[in-house]
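Subject line: Sequence and fold of a protein, written as structure tokens
Body of memo: The sequence and its backbone structure tokens, given next.
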Amino acid sequence: MPLPCSCLKAIVFTALLFFYATLTLATPQDRECVIVLHGLGRSESSMGNIEKTLIENGYRVWNEPYPSREADIETLAATHVSLGVRQCEEWKTTAVHFVTHSMGGILVRQYLQSDDIHGLGKIVMLAPPNHGSEVVDHLKDGSVFQEIMGPAGQQLSTHKNSIPNSLKPIPGTIGIIAGSVTSDPWFAWMFTGPNDGKVSVESARLDEMADFIVVEHGHTFIMNHNDVIEQVLFFLKQGKFKAGRHGDRLYDGVPRDNDQEVYRNR
């Protein structure tokens, strides 16, 4: 027996209401953009695991390559970071976050020296040379290093007048993940304290950071580890890192286990 016309209309109307509700009732992540920036000499594929996870968790993600070895930091920040910001604006997202590896974090700091970002949210930096790298100190004058690393590589020394050490504090809620297991043991003699093979734990810090953890991974592939990706997601949602993971060394204000060492902002 066919349904009365009034019943069919009611069913269609209810279905349409449900359809439009699923379009408009998006989760907060669906309205948030994450700009992903790879490091010096790497490509967007190096951040592929993080990009995939962010997309699976509902974020709009911009992860594009840039010629990291062909220009200086100022030029890279002005030309590349601005593209990501513009894309987030075109997507009409309500928040703009960053997830960076190594020099990618310096590009964000450089960009924010002169440009504002509407809706700037969280900035998660993985192994950033925020005060330069001892490796650059020792190798920057060599022709091979200059050829391979390009102009930006020359700017990442620990000298007090280097680009990383000359940048002013930036806005945003900043979380930093540093590594303490070397991925480059041949550079070990260049460091005097904990490091990831390219960047020391101390160099990764910023005075304006909201939270800081040290994980037992090396510089080159720190972004591929599940515990790091988990911490990135947690920080984007909570503005702090997740406490209680075995092996993580946590910043001020986060509870520690008896077998964990706390690195405090000195």
DSSP finds nine helices and seven strands in the chain. The two ends are 79 Å apart (CA to CA).
